[in-house]
Design brief:
Layout lengths: L17 E4 L2 E6 L5 E12 L10 E13 L6 E9 L9 E11 L2 E7 L1 E7 L4 E21 L5 E19 L4 E18 L5 E6 L4 E9 L3
Antiparallel strand pairs: 1-3, 2-3, 3-4, 4-5, 5-6, 6-7, 7-8, 8-9, 9-10, 10-11, 11-12, 11-13
Length: 219
């Protein structure tokens, strides 16, 4: 994390953060049309200044119903459920809604929370996507920060709404490489106390965003 403004406290321990996830998923047939998907995600999220601590551990969970018709004339997928995920920077259960439709051989859209998008397929390997998505994090600070007003910050969160452009290269049907560039439409970086209350606003200015990676997915 970089800071352009001067802060009224030492920021040396607020530069580098780490998030480590383990996803444990279970998929079963609910009935003829719907599948049930449950995912449990133990997470370590901290600045790891002094090794690991109990407060570095978080538990995220997702439960959804999933319906899909991949072989229809216009393939579609519907996912409806709830997710408790600190990645968003909002440590409360959130709705998970995803409606995908391939309305043209070269075009598809996704409408939902936390992501909506429009994608163009050049061929089976290459695609370009415009997306609006919610992103962020919620991380433990191992050393509390005492502010001038007497409040104590023990967590840091970032919540952002992003407008992005994504290039994806499909290695196989389930594996792909991607590169994403964009800008935050709305952003809040906040120091929080043990009760998750706001104690200091770090940043609410729009920023440039970039991400790249390798992914394996069921969709």
């Amino acid at each position: 994390m970089g800071y352009s403004a001067n802060l009224p406290f030492d920021k040396s321990e607020l530069i580098r953060f780490h998030v480590i996830d383990l996803n444990l998923g279970y998929l079963t047939k609910w009935n003829e049309n719907w599948n049930l998907v449950t995912i449990l995600t133990p997470r370590m999220a901290s600045n790891f200044i002094n090794g690991t601590a109990t407060d570095d551990f978080f538990m995220n969970a997702t439960a959804t119903f999933w319906k899909e018709r991949p072989n229809a004339d216009k393939p579609f997928r519907i996912v409806l459920g709830l997710t408790y995920n600190s990645t968003t920077g909002l440590p409360v259960p959130l709705p998970l809604v995803n409606y995908y439709r391939r309305f043209h051989p070269n075009w598809s859209f996704t409408f939902g929370i936390p992501k909506s998008s429009l994608r163009h397929y050049f061929n089976k390997r290459h695609s370009l996507e415009m997306a609006l998505l919610l992103d962020g994090y919620f991380i433990n600070l191992q050393n509390d920060i005492l502010l001038d007003n007497g409040q104590v910050a023990s967590k840091i969160s970032l919540t952002s709404l992003l407008g992005t452009l994504v290039y994806q290269y499909n290695i196989t049907k389930r594996m792909s490489l991607f590169a994403m560039v964009g800008k935050t439409v709305v952003q809040e970086g906040i120091l929080r106390n043990d009760d998750q209350g706001k104690v200091y606003l770090l940043n609410d200015e729009s920023n440039f965003y970039i991400r790249t990676g390798f992914k394996i997915g069921v969709f």
